[in-house]
């Protein structure tokens, strides 16, 4: 892999993606949370190509600039571009578009670790 390589994920907006909290529906468009999850998946596509069988990726950061709405039934195309691969660190920038409309942009970070090490990190601490 080299800087500038891209991976693309297409997300169909459904009612499950709407902005909603415990107090009810905020608005019937794709939420920032749902866009962020799709952006992280687009970056993860690089991790899936890079990791070995005994490794797994873990998110390290996510930034999202939500610029415009995406409506139910629309397809959001998220294109992740490899910004940096430094050892086991993978950093991607991304843009999310519906047609020509820029819906969001930002960056994601992930780290590739041995599954055994990751299991120890994620194990609950017992007091």
Automatic annotation (TrEMBL):
<dbReference type="InterPro" id="IPR054485">
    <property type="entry name" value="FlK-like_dom"/>
</dbReference>
<dbReference type="InterPro" id="IPR029069">
    <property type="entry name" value="HotDog_dom_sf"/>
</dbReference>
<feature type="domain" description="Fluoroacetyl-CoA-specific thioesterase-like">
    <location>
        <begin position="13"/>
        <end position="116"/>
    </location>
</feature>
<dbReference type="Pfam" id="PF22636">
    <property type="entry name" value="FlK"/>
</dbReference>
<dbReference type="InterPro" id="IPR025540">
    <property type="entry name" value="FlK"/>
</dbReference>
<protein>
    <submittedName>
        <fullName>Thioesterase family protein</fullName>
    </submittedName>
</protein>
């Amino acid at each position: 892999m080299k800087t500038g390589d891209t991976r693309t994920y297409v997300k169909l907006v459904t009612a499950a993606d709407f902005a909603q909290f415990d107090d009810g529906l905020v608005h019937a468009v794709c939420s920032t949370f749902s866009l962020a999850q799709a952006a992280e998946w687009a970056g993860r596509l690089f991790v899936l190509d890079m990791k070995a069988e005994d490794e797994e990726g873990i998110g390290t950061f996510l930034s999202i600039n939500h610029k415009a709405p995406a409506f139910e039934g629309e397809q959001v195309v998220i294109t992740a571009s490899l910004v940096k691969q430094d050892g086991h660190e993978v950093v991607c920038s991304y843009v999310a578009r519906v047609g020509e409309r820029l819906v969001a942009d930002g960056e994601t970070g992930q780290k590739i670790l041995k599954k055994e090490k990751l299991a120890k990190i994620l194990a609950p601490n017992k007091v």
